[in-house]
Every structure is written in C-alpha cells, then in structure tokens.
Amino acid sequence: MTAIANPSVSIQDLSLNFGAISVLETLNLDVAEGEFIVLLGPSGCGKSTLLNCIAGLLDISDGRIFIKGKNVTWEEPKDRGIGMVFQSYALYPQMTVERNLSFGLRVAGLPKEEIAKRIARASEILQIEPLLQRKPAALSGGQRQRVAIGRALVRDVDVFLFDEPLSNLDAKLRSELRVEIKLLHRKLENTMIYVTHDQIEAMTLADRIAVMKGGVIQQLDAPQTIYNRPVNRFVAGFLGSPAMNFLEGRLEKDGSNWHFAVEDVRIPLSTYTFEREPTPVPAVFGIRPEHVAFNSGAGWPFTATTSVEVVEPMGSDTLVWLKLGGQNFTVRVTSERTPNNADTVNIGFDPMRASLFDAQTGNRL
Amino acid sequence: MSDRAVSLPLAVVGREASGPSGPKPRHTFSRRNIFLYGTLIVVALYYLLPLYVMIVTSLKGMPEIRLGNIFSPPLEITFEPWVKAWSQACTGLNCDGLSRGFWNSVRITVPSVILSIAIASVNGYALANWRFKGADTFFVILIVGAFIPYQVMIYPIVIILREIGLYGSLSGLVIVHSIFGMPILTLLFRNYFSSMPEELFRAARVDGAGFWGIYLRIMLPMSLPIFVVAVILQVTGIWNDFLFGVVYTRPDTYPMTVQLNNIVNSVQGVKEYNVNMAATILTGLVPLIVYFLSGKLFVRGIAAGAVKG
Fold first, then answer.
1. Considering only CB atoms, which chain A residues are within 8 Å of B199?
2. Distance from CA of A202 to the nearest CA of B (A)
C-alpha cells in the first residue's frame, strides 16, 4: 500500500474490543482527500463498527484517528467534521424535513440566515424543496434517504460517512440513488466513506474498495484490481456474481513448466503471473464464469470438452453448470447461445485471467 | 358474444360443483359468538353489579335503605348523602367531610407523579441510550428494589423521615411515593427508549445534541404514549394508596383513602350506608376518570413498553 501524502481520514493501529471479543485489530487505513472509499464485507465483518469508530459513536480500545490532519480520537462526533447517513434514515419523526435538516445547525447555534442559506443549497442539490414542510412519515423511502443525505450535507463537513444507506430501498430505487450518490460525490468532491455488503454498490461507487473480514482489511485497492487480482480466496469468492469457480487440486511441475492438476485435467500455467516462486503444493484454481469461452473453437491455452448439467437463464445471459475435473464449474453464456441439458460442449480459457490460491492459507500464489 | 355464452354456464357450474367460493359465510348466532359474547356479558355484569348497588344506595335516604332491597332503584332520589360525604361527614375531630382528604390527596398525588416521572424518564433514557459503566448492575439493583415487600421498609423510612424532619408532612409522603414508583417506572421508560431505533440517537449525536438535548428535543416528543401510561400508573397507584398514607401522615394531612376508611369504619351511631357509598364513589372517581380519558393511549403505551426487554 502506498502512503497517501495528506490523508483526509487516517486510521492508525485502531483496535476495538467488546470485553474479550476483538472486533477490530490494529487496523490501518488512509483515505485521500476527495476519495470515495467503500468498506465491503459480509455481516459481522466490522465494517459498520469501523465507520462508527470514525464517527466517534463508539469508543475505541486503542489507536488513533485523524480527520483532516487533526487528531480526533477523543473528540465528540459533532466536533469531527463528519456527516453521517444511516441505513434506517434516522430522521426525527416529529420534525418536518426542514427542521430535520436544521436540527444540527440549531443545536450549534448558527444564525438564522446562515441556516436558511444552507438548507436552500442542500435542498436544491438533492431536489427536496417541495418536501421541506412535510413530516418524514409522509415521505417515500427514497425521499427519506435523500433528506438523510441532506442532513449530512447542511453540516458543511469534509467527510461523509454512509452506513448502508441503500439497504432499506427496493432494487429500482437503490440503483437510482446509487447514481445520485455518485453524482453528488462528483459535485461536492468530499471524502466519502461508504459501508455496504452489496458488491455492485462497491464496484460502481468506489475509487478504492476495502474488503473486510473478521475485523481485518483483506484487500484495499481499486475495484478492477480487486476484481481481477484478489489477494486471497475470500476476496475472490466475495466479489463477483455469479461467484468465481474454484477447483481444488495441486500445483505440479512438468519439466520447467508449472501446471495445475485436478484429477485428469491439466491446466497449463505458462501465461499465469505468479506472485512468488511456485512450489508443488495443494492449491485452488479460481476463474470467473465470464472469463471462460464457450464453444468458440481452439486457440485457448486450455480447452476441455464436457457435458452440460444445468442451465440457469438469468435474462441478459445464462449460467451453464458443467463438471470439470469432477467439480462444479459455471460458465456465463449470452442468452442466444444457451445450450440444452446434457449437450456436449467445448470450453476454453486463458489462465492469465485466473487466480491461484494456496489451499491452506487461501493466499494468492 | 361468444365470451358471454361460455362464461355464464361456467359460473353456474362453479357455484354448484366446485365447492366454496367467495367470502366464508358468518352467522351472527353461531355457537362461537354466543359463547364469546355470553361470557363477556356475564363478566361485565359481575363487575358492574357492585357499582350499580353503590350508586343506587348512595341516592337513597336511610329509611329506604332499611327496607333492605339493595338492588331496587331509589324511590325518591336524594343527593343529601353525597353532600354529606363531601362536606359534613365526621372523621375523628374534623367534621368537614372528604373535601379535606381530597385536597390532601391532590397535594400528594400531583407532585409525586411529576417528580417520579421526571426522574424515572431520565433514568430510563440514560439506561437505554447512554450505556455507562455499571449500567446493568444499577438496573438490576433497581429492579430487585421492586420486589422488596413494602412492610420491610416502612419502619426504616419512618426513622429516616423523622431524622430529616419530614415525618407527618405532605412532602415526606411525596418523597416516599416518588422513591417507590422508581423501579417500575424506570423499567417502563428504559424498555420504551430501547425500543426506539438506535440510529436516531446516533444521528442526534452526530448533529451535536448532548445528553439533555437528545432527551428534551428528540426523545420526549416521541414518547407521549409511555408518559400517559406512567401518569396513569402513578395517579391511580398514589391516589389509591392507603398504607403509606396512614403511616406517614397525621390526621390533618390524611389522604382521601385514609379518610374514607375513617368515615366508613366509624362506629358511633347509625351506619349511614348511603353516605359511605357516596364517599367511596367520590374517592374512586379520580382513577376512574383518568382511565376513561386515556384508555386508548394507555393500551398503546403498555404495548409499546412491553416489546423489548
């Protein structure tokens, strides 16, 4: 990881324990000015906890947090220069939208004109002007979340924190608001830290994704890098839908060439870039269903003939289940080329696009 | 045209051959209904009958009561017993009726209710949202307090009140009521506040509101139902209290319940049943009115407070 010169948010050796349970362990993360970072991981991986620590809503056990170069480790949430958007919107039900937006500013004792100015700006950006006099109960889910974003916006802060903001919305609204959040980020150019378990949100929004598991950041990189070169089996399996194919076998050397062996299948690895010098160990070979060519003739470093087990149409394309080396293997095929069950088909791929993991540690080889 | 020709016979067949369709028929006088409403009516009568007897008796004169027909309506309606119960009945040395006790009870109930709810709601809020160190222990101690029999504490409290010079005064009784209401009220408020979404609390903290800011501006406006429940519990509980009233006050500061007991149980002369009945109804009127005015909110609040532990 390259160091960032003037990080907007910098987390240094952060630890958090609840009694004997360690939730976050000596975690380090630097977020650049204006960067959109997505914390991605399954439930219970500590991503929301990390966000709450940055917000100051949870007391940490060890480490330091800097925001804009200022040590805010012991600061109250309001003094950290953050705005936060919650999954359940968390709008104050008894206040109108306008009062909701202005609550923090009124608490801070800002002059009336300033409050009005900021509300006007935020409601214009988010297009919620017609809703200002309504109560949250009279708003739809999407409108509520827009107001919740507005509440962070009026605070005029450097860092926005999003805690699964779209998880309560239906699929259509989710994709709409996703685009809006992206546009908002482009317009405001603020630092944004966004927690989600949805890989699509992560891939589409992030400048960099931090994939978390068990309170540890597994990989922190640009979405494409994470997608194409996952550092371990967990990251590889978590990102991508349909999920990556994993074949369990072993690395073998044949003269000077390495290949991956599973039952009678031999996958040559001459085009694969190893992270380190390979050794003959049990390994896992991973390749994404969309990186496998289907019935498209020879010319691939690896080809095989096998028969179709199950066909799953998904609309735009079809997932074809096969057996390779006695293990399940899926291929993504465009709808027009959907085969029938039990058809005999050819598949081929270039191991250059594959990922090899150590069977024991799960780390990339 | 052909559509209709086909669909008509189909509908007829549907009715007759393919079994039930549409809403299930319900009969007003089904066995279930008779059983259900029969039970409800019997139970309602069972509870209403004593009240009926009381009202009827309180409107009769003494000669009519001596006839012994306690269920028959009054032949001659008189409000004399009510007036006597309110302003002339004798308790000990005073002969100014229940009015004195009524105002004593008001002066005990109002401050006790306000004080206990004010403190308990803040307690509950702090326990639910500001999980300070030892919060759970504190809560357990408080709840255990609710199970200690009152009898154990009566005498120690007498001594404490005497030592701080409040024994026999109304303010002493107010303090006692406030303390004894604390466990159950705190539990009530804690459960209600923990049922509120935690993100709301977090959002308010990010917005910069502090302990009191969040309590007064976010939590209070959202907790009307639970406050109504607390008010009802406290008003009825304190108004109906007899034990603390008789122990911690003097004759001139007796609450209404103690005075009622003294009127009803005074043995000199004739037992004036009509006055006793009127006095009893007068004493019970306040809780009764409170229930009637707030029935719906009460149920809603009880349900809301019970959801989460």
1. 86-90, 163
2. 23
For the domain spanning B101-255+286-306, the CATH number is 1.10.3720.10
For A131-168, how does the pLDDT look when each residue is reduced to its tens digit (9 = 90+)? 999 999 899 988 999 999 999 999 889 899 999 999 88
> Which ranges in chain B belong to alpha helices (H)?
2-17, 31-58, 62-66, 80-87, 99-129, 135-147, 150-163, 170-194, 198-206, 211-213, 220-222, 224-240, 243-248, 256-265, 273-306
Q: Is the pLDDT of residue B112 over 70?
A: yes
Low-confidence stretches of chain A (pLDDT < 70) are: 1-3
DSSP 3-state of A39:
strand
Domain ranges of chain B: 101-255+286-306
Asked if A86 and B209 come within 8 Å (Cβ–Cβ), the reply is: no
CA distance A101 to chain B (A): 10
Identify which of A254, A251, A301, A255 has the alpha carbon closest to the alpha carbon of residue A277. A251
Q: Look at B209 and A83 and tell me if their CB atoms are within 8 Å.
A: no
pLDDT at B307 exceeding the cut of 50: no
Determine contact, residues A337/A294, Cβ cutoff 8 Å. Answer: yes
Q: Torsions phi, psi of B59, nearest 5?
A: -100, 5
CB contact, 8 Å: B115 with chain A?
Answer: no
Sign of the CA dihedral running A158, A163, A168, A170: positive
User: What is the distance in angstroms between the Cα of A45 and the nearest Cα belonging to chain B?
Assistant: 19
Q: Do A93 and B209 touch (CB under 8 A)?
A: no
Chosen from B207, B211, B218, B222 to mutate, greatest number of chain A CBs within 10 A: B207
Q: Residue B9 carries which side chain, given as an amino acid letter?
A: P
Does any CB of chain A come closer than 8 Å to the CB of residue B206?
A: yes
Provide the ipTM: 0.85
A76–B222 CB contact, under 8 Å = no
Domains of chain A: 9-237 (3.40.50.300), 245-358 (2.40.50.140)
Contact criterion met (CB < 8 Å) for B222 and A90: no
The answer to whether the CB atoms of A94 and B221 lie below 8 A apart is yes
Q: What predicted TM-score, i.e. pTM, was given to this entire model?
A: 0.81
d(CA A295, CA B49): 89
Judging contacts by C-beta atoms under 8 Å, the chain B residues touching residue A93 are: 222
Buried/exposed B195-211: b ≥16 CB within 10 Å, e otherwise: ebeebbbbbbbbbbbee
Sheet holding A293-294, edge to edge: A293-294, A344-349, A302-313, A317-324, A327-334
Task: Give the separation between CA A151 and CA A359, rounded to whole angstroms.
Answer: 48
Structural tokens at position B157: 């409290």
